[in-house]
Hints:
Strand 1 and strand 2 form a beta hairpin. The protein has helices at residues 41-44, 55-75; strands spanning 10-16, 21-26, 30-33. It starts with 9 loop residues before the first strand and ends with a helix. The radius of gyration is 22 Å and the shape is elongated. The chain is an alpha+beta fold. The protein is 33% helix and 22% strand.
Amino acid sequence: MKEGIHPNYVQCTVHCACGNEFETLSMKPQIRTEICSNCHPFYTGKQKIVDTEGRVDKFMQRYGKALKTQAAAKKK
């Protein structure tokens, strides 16, 4: 292998928005993330809507009334 072309790996601390922190190796000394294995729905089994751009709210404003009327029609 050639010398001097490979990146240097340093001890890295990963910080999640949920408060979880863990250490790993990376080229950066610090990484900040929004979702980790402690809060991701696939690993926890709990449904959590991660909406950074407000898409779910926009959808509910547009189609929320229609969904409610469809549900009421099914009950009758």
